[in-house]
Amino acid sequence: QVQLVESGGGSVQAGGSLRLSCATSGYSYFFNCMGWFRQYPGKGREAVASHYGADSPNYADSVKGRFTLSRDIAKNMMYLEMKSLKPEDTAMYYCAADCRGGAWNSQDTYNYWGQGTQVTVSS
């Protein structure tokens, strides 16, 4: 059974940094793509960043220049380095993996999801 487990969330003040990790298990191959989404209370998930194959990562405009996605493909792990955090970055952050075709920023593109890790940024 494929599992994705996020870690690294927490509470920080505006301007601070956090590093999220996504550990995977139960998958015999390398994921063709992995991504991060976030969800605000009462709203749908929005794409934060994604990486497919050998391409450069894609980022939402709201996080460009502040967030960096990286992957350890051999270990099927993914990270999200978040800097200059803002209160509007407060959300539950989800790891997603294994794309079946579609836009990088669409939830429907990803087959597997983690349970999420909470990020709270105070002003």
Descriptive account of the structure:
The chain is 0% helix and 53% strand. With 123 residues, the protein is mainly β. Strands 2, 4, 5, 6, 9, 10 and 11 form a seven-stranded mixed β-sheet that branches. The chain starts with a strand and ends with a strand.
Supply database-style keywords.
123 residues, mainly beta, seven-stranded mixed sheet, four-stranded antiparallel sheet, globular
Task: Give a short overview.
The chain has strands at residues 3-7, 10-13, 18-25, 33-39, 45-52, 58-59, 67-72, 77-82, 91-99, 110-113, 117-122.
Largest sheet: 7 strands, mixed
- Which range does the strand content fall in? over 45%
Distance between the termini: 40 Å
Rg on CA atoms, Å:
13 Å
Share in helix:
under 10%
Label the overall shape.
Answer: globular
Average predicted local confidence, pLDDT: 95
How many helix segments?
0
Low-confidence stretches: none
Strand segment count? 11
Q: How do the SSEs run, as a string of H and E?
A: EEEEEEEEEEE
Structural class: mainly beta
Topology:
Elements lengths: L2 E5 L2 E4 L4 E8 L7 E7 L5 E8 L5 E2 L7 E6 L4 E6 L8 E9 L10 E4 L3 E6 L1
Parallel strand pairs: 2-11
Antiparallel strand pairs: 1-3, 3-8, 4-5, 4-9, 5-6, 7-8, 9-10, 9-11
